[in-house]
């Protein structure tokens, strides 16, 4: 294929993809679900593969894009009218934290570990699991957070209350394992941790899915269900 032929197919393929995505709506570029992600990949791959396939002509490329776009459009219509199909193609949001407690089964079902959850919480401006009343893992991989009432408004600034500098909580136990480096970083040892766990009625760290050390040496723990 000549350079001119590649140029023409790229330009026309680009325009066809742009029109298709505009027709399908914003879900192809934002708030993307697993189905949207797959459909977007296939749309791009159709053009990429066809351009370097000498047997595939321009009309075949446009035909493939048109058929795939029509299938996506019909699927979107079906999911709008049918709740079971919507759950099948788009999935259902999962409650990861409920009434301040980690829902470990939902985390496992969504293959979400503690470190990933903490990262998602930090992206929402939450640095401690203890501050959260509810957290919902959305279909697009994002996290919606409802803070506990005591951790939400009004703020100390609103009440003209002076506070000490805030610190980031340190993860002490993750997935039942003690993070010794973090424990040493906090200037503590395993004997201190054992005493704290005994006070909370915990026999061994393996019973805990997550524990963090907050300011003032306050240990916050979450047990397995």
Which word captures the global form? elongated
Order of helices and strands: HHHHEEHHEEEEHHEE
Q: Which structural class do the helices and strands define?
A: alpha+beta
Task: Kindly state the number of beta strands.
Answer: 8
Helical content (DSSP H or I, runs of 4+) = 40-55%
- Give the total of domains: 3
Mean pLDDT: 78
Number of helices: 8
Low-confidence runs of at least 5 consecutive residues = 26-30
Describe the structure.
The protein has 3 domains: 3-89, no CATH class; 94-151, 2-Layer Sandwich (CRO Repressor); 170-223, 2-Layer Sandwich (CRO Repressor). Helices cover 46% and strands 17% of the residues. It has helices at 3-24, 34-51, 58-81, 83-90, 104-109, 114-123, 180-185, 190-199, and strands at 94-98, 101-102, 132-137, 143-147, 170-174, 177-178, 208-214, 218-223. The strands form 2 sheets. A 4-stranded antiparallel beta sheet has the order 2-1-3-4. The chain has a 4-stranded antiparallel beta sheet with strand order 6-5-7-8. Helix 3 (58-81) crosses helix 4. The longest helix is centred in the first third of the chain and has 24 residues, at 58-81. It is elongated.
